[in-house]
Amino acid sequence: MAYIKINKSNLIHNLNQIALKTGSVDKIAIVLKDNAYGHGVGKIGKIARDFGIKKAVVRNYEEAKEIEELFDDIIVLGGTLIPSPKLSYAINSMEKLTSCPQGTKIELKIDTGMHRNGIILDEIEKAIEIIKDNNIILNGVMSHFASADELGSEYFYQYKNFQKAKEILTSLGVENIRFHIHNSGGILRVKDFKEDLVRVGIGAYGCNPMDSTFDKVELKPVMSLYAKKISTRKLKSGMRVGYGGEFTATKDMIVSTYELGYGDGWRRGDTKSPYTLPNGKKILGRVSMDLITLEGDDDEVCIMEDANIAAKHFGTISYEITCAMHANIQRVIVD
Question: Considering its fold, how many domains does the chain have in total?
């Protein structure tokens, strides 16, 4: 079977790096959506709570219920609005705002330039009227950087628009709310953090998305992936392996199959550019739904120890590699 190791020490190291940026653990909201980016929401949530983090971010109400006992303050990014004392819902449109039940605690999202979700600046005044008239609780105002990890002007453009939103809200008499726009990319680039909290996702899990021009913040990968052997056989030179026989042995060799495949969330890839394991061995032939083949007869192999490296090979991002890992794969915490 396949299993995942969650490195507790690396996670704590990463959270410490973020805390140095924010100046306080109280300003960190850990993003646990989509099974904590594939790492395991329950296990990551407990480590984060023991570290001192009291705020979390999830995708929907169902995810929030999984961690409600661990955190005092949970931001819910979407789904059905079900009022609850610990939950504050991101509101992404005027339509969603008008449908909020009375007493719902919300984070009003502003479109500062990503043009994905949120109300525009010209809608803020009307939004505040709706909030007051419908007895909705405005807990915070948020936005999201589109490219904080890249060198360019968009970060500054969005941040300037976020400041404009603050000015509008102040002119309307809105006070005692929190403001947050920074994600992992945002917090890793700033030297003087001034917001009320940062929503940290991929950075907590050890993937540094930043362009090389920025000051390097050392983050350590939290997830590593392992697979156990199913069977071993001897191949003669010229024998072919797997579906389509796309690998042909060029010598007499020993090969083994291991219980991992695209059914577990591992990438199928391209046999013309086979994935290389940390030990230097390459996957032989096609990745099957539940199996891969490797040279040798080790009882267990490390498939991946750094999602950044795997993502580079497959031409994708580390988020996709970790989030794809099936929830049924066992997660084991190691120090």
Answer: 2
